[in-house]
Amino acid sequence: MEEQVNRMEMNELEALTKMVISCMQEQMQKGNGFLVPVGVSNRHIHLSQEDVETLFGPGYQLTKKKELMGGQFAANECCTIVGLKLRAIENVRVLGPARKQTQVEISNTDARKLGINVPVRESGDIAGSAPIAIVGPKGAIYCKEGCIVAARHIHMSPKDAAACGVSDGDYVSVKVDNERGTTFDKVKIRVDESFTLEMHIDTDEANASEIKQGDKVIVVK
Known about the structure:
Strand content: 35-45%
Order of helices and strands: HEEHEEEEHEEEEHEEEHE
Largest sheet: 6 strands, mixed, barrel
């Protein structure tokens, strides 16, 4: 009988704990901030179809390794990127599908290794950005511009944006609630029906703030 009572008390305590946690999360979403999972973005390459064929051969099509949000995918194909004085980084993943313009996204640590000065830009904003060479198994290309450090941003669906109280193109601040206690400012909101809720930062930012893939941060605006 005593064992039954103890079990009932434990069940009640467990249910109460779950309810408290749920209330805390709800208050976090509605009042003190909006929780967002983090995706840590490693260096990668976007290629035009013309450059795909230069690097991998005439008529070549990128092959899919892993689905990503927004209709993108991590391809099986990798290339070597080359900076000044022939400094190189091998096995850089290509993302598909092919784009109108070739673009290489790296971290500042990568930029120092390659010996190039790379601006922080939004994806697609490559005018006047850093030059880079890309080497594939069947050829090589030299881009006079196209290498950037991607500006941190948050992908959201319209539903998530409404819940967070933000719109496409807004800028917010984001708090990392861990031992480092980092706050990221100037985080751009990107809204699209095809997006899954996720903040994208590069490996330098993740290492400095001790964030791992899948950790959650708080939009504090």
